[in-house]
Amino acid sequence: MNDLKQEDFEVKKLGKATLVSPIYKNYAEEEISNELFIDESRKIVYDASLSSYKNTLESGAEPISFLKAGPRKDIYFDPSKTKAAIVTCGGLCPGINNVIRGLVNGLYYRYKVRNIWGIQYGYQGLIPEYGHEMKKLTPEVVKDIHLFGGTILGSSRGRQDISAMVDALERENINILFTIGGDGTLSGNHVINEEIERRGLKIVTAGIPKTIDNDVNFMTKTFGFDTAFTTAAAVVRDAHNEATGAYNGVAIVKLMGRDSGFIAANAALAMPDVNFVLVPENEFDLHGEKGFLAALKERVLDRHHALVVVAEGAGQNLFDHEDVKKDKSGNIKHKDIGVHLKDEINKFFKSEDIEATVKYIDPSYIIRSEVAIPADSVFCNDLALNAVHGAMAGLTDFVVGRWHNQFTYLPIPAATASRKKIDVNGPLWWAVLETTGQPLKMKDE
Ligand SMILES: Nc1ncnc2c1ncn2[C@@H]1O[C@H](COP(=O)(O)OP(=O)(O)OP(=O)(O)O)[C@@H](O)[C@H]1O
Ligand SMILES: O=P(O)(O)OC[C@H]1O[C@](O)(CO)[C@@H](O)[C@@H]1O
């Protein structure tokens, strides 16, 4: 591993370094993480323990090359002539403002870039017809924004014309575009980059992965996730009070998680009063001997209260999918499992002649609008600074992340090829089963 040289690795679209960084010229540059391994035959770097690595290859994505994130000795852009822009897209997430603040301060103080702009309301802000003016960003403008949830730039969903967006970058003489967003935003970043390459423009794009669902590939954790499950855990605690406050009380808390149940699983582990965690990765039946309702009944008759945490993408197998609805960006809108559970539990206990009190709590939007907790604030700032370092060094079409205790730069297609999910044979799910005591499977098979 130590004998590996930079040229052994397939590094996509690394810009040509032309300038020596005024600040980092003495920085010992180390490009490759020791925790990653090389597949000599393919000339790629991967983590041997990685199941998502295999999924990514199977999905036909490009091979993965991790670079260790951090400042480079040589930088590509002359700070005095560099114009940077920041855009935030998709749903909200705790910490977006911290990332914006970190990007602005990193550019301004570390590299002395003075021309920094915020694009308003997501990719819409690059389309003149919407009329969203760009916002000048300085350390003064962003100095307090970490004290608030949401995004000071606004966000949006919905496809925009790629060529028109690149026209805007060209027209505005933007050299660096930072995109803060989830899977969709990063995919958008990638196609914008393809158009930039086609036109041969000196523009780089850098992604900072934003999703409270924590479902981005090759990221141990995305920012906002810790805040999300910490906030969710407080709701779960209160729900427990509701459940125990009535004889045969059942409380259901629905949490976000379109495709992955990380928030639900972690909130339940943080608040181990939870008796059932329902996640998209683990299908369940409602009815039948081994179904969820039978298990719930057993629990209620035994202890006279029960606490259920359900991720929004769970139990979708219980619905028919003839009228699939999508949001503006094309994401499938899931059927409301929380309301469905509440109704089915009520019906079931009535049919069993058991008097039960069912309380349903959906704190989704409150959770994702929260202010970042300190651990997330630190993380957001680190991600932002590393994104700045990569972009100033001329890297493009990359997403900054953290993987096995290292900050990394990863080609966007590797991050978006598939979603990270809970491994139901892995330690997280086993911890959930052990803590809740819920049956291994709630399905008649
Ligand atoms: N393949 C793509 N090409 C171009 N633009 C895309 C692509 N996928 C998504 N986008 C755009 O990226 C923006 C954000 O996408 P989306 O609404 O799916 O949110 P997201 O980034 O996945 O965040 P969240 O995790 O909150 O859903 C939208 O404007 C969407 O149209
Ligand atoms: O209601 P909106 O804004 O479409 O966002 C909901 C989605 O955002 C997410 O949190 C992803 O960021 C999903 O779990 C959820 O489906």
Named at the architecture level, the CATH assignment of the largest domain is 3-Layer(aba) Sandwich
Roughly what percent helix? Answer: 25-40%
The first-level CATH class of the largest domain is given as: Alpha Beta
Q: Give the biggest sheet.
A: 8 strands, mixed
What is the CA-based Rg, rounded? 23 Å
**Would you identify the regions where 5 or more consecutive residues have pLDDT less than 50?**
1-53
> Terminal Cα separation, in Å?
47 Å
**Neighbour order of strands in the largest sheet:** 4-18-17-10-9-6-7-8
The distinct ligands, each listed once, are: adenosine-5'-triphosphate, 6-O-phosphono-beta-D-fructofuranose
Secondary structure tally: strands? 18
Mean pLDDT across all residues, rounded? 87
Q: Determine the structural class based on helices, strands and strand pairing.
A: alpha/beta
> Which geometry do the CA atoms define?
elongated
Overview of the molecule:
This protein has 445 residues and is α/β, with parallel strands linked by helices. It folds into two domains: 6-222 and 372-403, Rossmann fold, CATH 3.40.50; 226-370 and 424-436, Rossmann fold (3-Layer(aba) Sandwich), CATH 3.40.50.460. 33% of the residues lie in helices and 17% in strands. The protein has helices at 51-58, 96-110, 139-142, 162-171, 183-199, 225-244, 262-270, 292-303, 337-351, 364-368, 374-392, 412-416, 427-436; strands spanning 19-20, 37-39, 44-46, 67-68, 74-75, 83-88, 115-119, 135-136, 176-181, 204-209, 249-255, 276-278, 305-311, 325-326, 332-333, 357-361, 398-403, 406-411. α2 (96-110) crosses α11 and α7 (262-270) crosses α13 (427-436). The longest helix is centred in the middle third of the chain and has 20 residues, at 225-244. It starts with 18 loop residues before the first strand and ends in a 9-residue tail after the last helix. Residues 1-53 have low confidence and may be disordered. 6-O-phosphono-beta-D-fructofuranose binds at residues 90-91, 182, 211-213, 256-258, 312, 327, 368.
